[in-house]
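User: Reviewer 2 asked us to show a designed sequence for the structure in our supplementary figure. I'm pasting the structure tokens here. Could you produce the per-position amino acids so we can include them in the response letter?
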């Protein structure tokens, strides 16, 4: 498969692995409702670090991702600020912000996007989907990166969104009236398979239903006429149809045939499912009943502004929401566009992530759809700019409470819901753990260790600092002997002893092994080789938490 090469690719290919884990710190004053990390989230901070910090709780849990990254037009003044340890990459930082004169701006954009796409893929469920808005500047490069990261077989569609309804008269060549929305599944659903992403149908509109305007009052409901012939020719399906009233004979048009067998056609005529015109003398047509068509519409790859809205309408909506101030955002995404993405991408119980949140349209769309159909969708937004509170979160606060003066009745009343506003705290760093300079809470360190050791997501409800229990993975019961206190960590109480191992196995009596994280072990290899069996249970001792950031699944024994 062809690969996209760009300057710095060798340095960023695995950069997402070296990004430190930072703590998510809830801010109750900026939240709506009681702060909780298991609900709706708005995270203020660098999105690369935020995505890494979400992994312990949300890896493999996000159903749908929508992002609207910088389009790299040369006029956005975005900055490449990833801390990649390379002289080549560091030299680029002296040339920020990235502008139209920067000859390496396309390389920088690819280097910025690569690690974020890698982490986004980790966060998706196996049947998840990602939608990315982009324009002609980087669409072809994005497509090649997505082919490498998600797999060329998992591309679903390259959708066109008609973002403007009028030409730009000062355009030098063509007036650009559309953007692309690139859609990839983490794993496409193959024919007959039960796994992989399955797209949802769009709801039928009143306009579409009104096309079924005839009714025979026979209990089958309204119907519309449809063609009885098809282009794919089959001699078996090329026969005459006789009008039962006039005895007039009808044959399919030249080069075509009927859509069904002769026997089936005779049955349809007997059941009054074939229409011969208002006067009963016309060519035969099939009666297509509304009650028998699928209760949804297959989405198309062209989304017009009449269907999903346009940028100008999105600006006007934002101005209504922020009627007490100047328009706070130049190019917000249309609410209908995000509602379309979410409707196609997910069911009513879903988690939607937007790591380039901007004006917060994604959260607005989630809350609006929940209000409309009673769904229980949740959102996670990440925004690195200073307006994360004053625009992104403030928009969500206002639509939750209600916006007077809008034409949308639901928005007037308020969409309801809540969210927790978070910032990114300090990184959990090995040196800080060893020195005691920064010791995270039991729960925060436990989440990281659990995910690092198992590549699975922890259940926060199972965490018990008093007993040291973190929860159960597919292979282990996992324990942590830890308090965020250097006095404790230097004491004998922080060590795993044989007596503590017996207590642990006694607490969980099943066939699963026990994985224990501790600052030290006081168990002799001679007296108790590892791994050992205590009353029918296997247990494994691992080194101090500060050394477990890169832990692999192997038994480690002895005193550390």
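Assistant: Here is a per-position design you can include in the supplement:
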């Amino acid at each position: 498969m062809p690969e996209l090469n760009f300057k710095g690719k060798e340095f960023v290919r695995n950069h997402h692995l070296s990004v430190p884990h930072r703590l998510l710190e809830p801010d109750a004053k900026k939240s709506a409702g009681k702060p909780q990390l298991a609900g709706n989230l708005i995270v203020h901070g660098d999105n690369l670090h935020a995505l890494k910090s979400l992994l312990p709780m949300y890896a493999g849990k996000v159903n749908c991702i929508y992002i609207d990254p910088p389009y790299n037009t040369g006029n956005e003044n975005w900055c490449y600020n990833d801390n990649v340890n390379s002289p080549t990459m560091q030299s680029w930082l002296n040339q920020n912000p990235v502008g139209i004169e920067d000859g390496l701006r396309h390389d920088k954009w690819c280097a910025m996007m690569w690690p974020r796409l890698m982490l986004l893929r980790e966060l998706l469920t196996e049947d998840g989907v990602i939608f990315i808005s982009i324009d002609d500047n980087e669409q072809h490069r994005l497509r090649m990166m997505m082919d490498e990261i998600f797999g060329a077989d998992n591309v679903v569609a390259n959708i066109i969104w008609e973002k403007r309804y009028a030409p730009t008269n000062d355009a030098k060549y063509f007036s650009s009236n559309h953007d692309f929305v690139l859609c990839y599944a983490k794993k496409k659903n193959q024919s007959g398979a039960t796994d992989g992403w399955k797209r949802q149908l769009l709801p039928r509109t009143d306009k579409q239903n009104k096309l079924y305007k005839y009714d025979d009052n026979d209990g089958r409901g309204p119907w519309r006429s449809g063609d009885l012939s098809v282009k794919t020719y089959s001699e078996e399906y090329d026969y005459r149809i006789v009008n039962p009233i006039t005895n007039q004979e009808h044959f399919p048009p030249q080069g075509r045939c009927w859509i069904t067998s002769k026997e089936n056609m005779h049955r349809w005529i007997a059941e009054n499912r074939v229409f011969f015109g208002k006067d009963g003398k016309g060519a035969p047509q099939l009666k297509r009943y509304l009650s028998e068509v699928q209760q949804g519409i297959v989405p198309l790859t062209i989304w017009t502004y009449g269907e999903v809205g346009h940028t100008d309408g999105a600006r006007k909506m934002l101005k209504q929401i922020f009627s007490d101030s100047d328009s706070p955002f130049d190019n917000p995404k249309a609410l209908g566009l995000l509602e379309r993405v979410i409707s196609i991408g997910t069911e009513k119980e879903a988690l939607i992530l937007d790591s380039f949140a901007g004006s917060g349209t994604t959260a607005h769309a989630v809350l609006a759809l929940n209000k409309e159909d009673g769904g229980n969708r949740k959102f996670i937004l990440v925004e690195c700019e200073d307006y994360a509170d004053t625009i992104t979160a403030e928009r969500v606060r206002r639509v939750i409470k209600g916006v007077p003066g809008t034409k949308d009745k639901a928005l007037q009343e308020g969409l309801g819901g809540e969210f927790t506003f978070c910032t990114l705290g300090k990184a959990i760093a090995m040196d800080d753990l060893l020195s005691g300079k920064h010791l995270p809470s039991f729960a925060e360190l436990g989440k990281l260790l659990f995910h690092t050791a198992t590549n699975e997501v922890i259940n926060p409800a199972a965490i018990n600092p008093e007993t040291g229990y973190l929860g159960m993975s597919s292979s282990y019961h996992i324990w942590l002997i830890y308090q965020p206190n250097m006095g404790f960590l230097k004491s004998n109480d922080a060590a795993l002893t044989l007596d503590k191992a017996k207590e642990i196995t006694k607490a969980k009596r099943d066939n699963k092994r026990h994985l224990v994280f501790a600052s030290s072990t006081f168990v002799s290899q001679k007296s108790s080789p590892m791994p050992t069996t205590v009353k029918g249970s296997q247990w494994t001792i691992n080194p101090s938490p500060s050394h477990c950031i890169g832990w692999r699944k192997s038994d480690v024994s002895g005193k550390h």
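For the response letter, you might also mention the following. The longest strand covers residues 22-32. The mean pLDDT is 88.
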